[in-house]
Amino acid sequence: MTVTALPAPAVAERDPAHIRWLIFTRDRGIFVLWVVLLAAFSLWASPYFASLDNAILIANAAALTAIFAAGVAVGIVCGALDLSIPGTAAIAACACGWLMTHGAPVWAGIAAALVIGALVGLANGLIALRGFNPIVVTIGTLSVMTGLAAVITGGYTVPGLDALSFMGTDRLLGVPGPVWMVAVLFAAGTLFLTRTRHGIRLMAVGGSAEAVRRCGIHAERYKVLGFVISGFCAALGGLVTTAVVTEASPAANPGIIFNALTAVALAGVALSGGRGSLPRVLVGALILATISNALTIKGIQPYWGTAVTGLLLLASLGLEKWVSTTVSRRLVATAQASAHTGTR
After folding, report:
1. What is the pLDDT of residues 44-53, one digit of tens each?
2. Which residues have CB under 8 Å from 178's CB, separation 6+?
3. Taking the model in full, what pTM does it have?
4. Other CB atoms within 10 Å distance of the CB of residue 331
5. Exposed, middle or buried by CB within 10 Å (0-12, 13-18, 19+), for 49?
6. Among 204, 255, 287, 335, which one is most buried in terms of CB atoms within 10 A?
7. Which one of 1.10.3470, 1.10.287, 3.30.310, 1.20.1740 gives the CATH number of domain 50-319?
8. Pairwise CA distance, residues 277 & 224, whole Å
9. Which helix (H) or strand (E) holds 67?
């Protein structure tokens, strides 16, 4: 007896197109969202929004969030969420400021800050490898680094750091220093993650550490590397913040991690690890700055921007969950339909 009414072949032909569309929404939807926002705000906040000067302002405003978000994203990609970033930024900035005010050259202060950031990341990674929860570890590190930053400066800010202005307020070819820093960081980071053996392995560890181990790769080393990169980016962000305001503060700003996580979530970086894109993270930071800029031009209170940012975070998490679940279900259904068709 033969049943001819089964829709399995139709499902097998139709589902791949739907899956491709869902994957496009997850991986490229953020670019579409940014273009839509730019077009909408160009009309809504005309004529001030759609100008070259305002575009530079948006890029400069997004720079700090982008730097911190890069560190958060790399950590998440390899399965290492780092919440100590605000404390790392504070101690790196204070160390640099203390050295500079005690006669050290600018390059030495910058180098010391970046090394401190990498060492904090190394410590986080090594402690986490002992079986401790990385979130708890980095929260503890956040408190320790914030306290040590206050110890270094005596609890006060370190003013007069104008020598760092090339990283902050100075412009090259009309573009602010932070934007150039972001361009270099994201170009190097993208090349590392997509074109080098260690970068590809780092992403693979986040996807399946056990599978990587079975291939003979030391997954633990790459998780530590993720923490080190996160700490380095946090230190760089602390330096750029210091350069903009020309003083180093020992106070850790919790808004840093909130904005960074929002940009990362908007970019579709899987919080479970193994998937992410630095260019999308950059666009996520630009979206946050674009919304804030447009609201400011229209004279709307800043707390509305905070509310919109929170809603975007929740929406992006919901979209990521829905797309992942839907794609998985359709792939399973397509595979079952194909297997059933092959046995007939």
Report:
1. 888 888 888 8
2. 60, 63, 64, 67, 167, 168, 240, 243, 244
3. 0.84
4. 13
5. buried
6. 287
7. 1.10.3470
8. 20
9. helix 52-77
